[in-house]
Request: fold
Amino acid sequence: MFDKNRFKAQMALRGKTSRDLAKALEIDESTLYRKIQNDGSFTRHEINTLIDVLEIDDPKSIFFAEELA
Reply:
C-alpha cells in the first residue's frame, strides 16, 4: 500500500514540488496528482526515478507500506 503522507513528507523534506517531480517523471502534473491520490499507481521506472530524485532511503516504507488495521 502506498503511504501518501510519508511520500508528501519526503517531498517537503527535499524541497521538491509536484511540478519538480512531474518534470523528472516526464508526465503532466495532473497525472502525478492522480497517481498520488489513487494509492500510488506508479510504474517500476517511476518509483526508481522518485527514489533518486527524493533521495528515499527506505522506499519500502513509502511504496510498499503495510496497511494498519
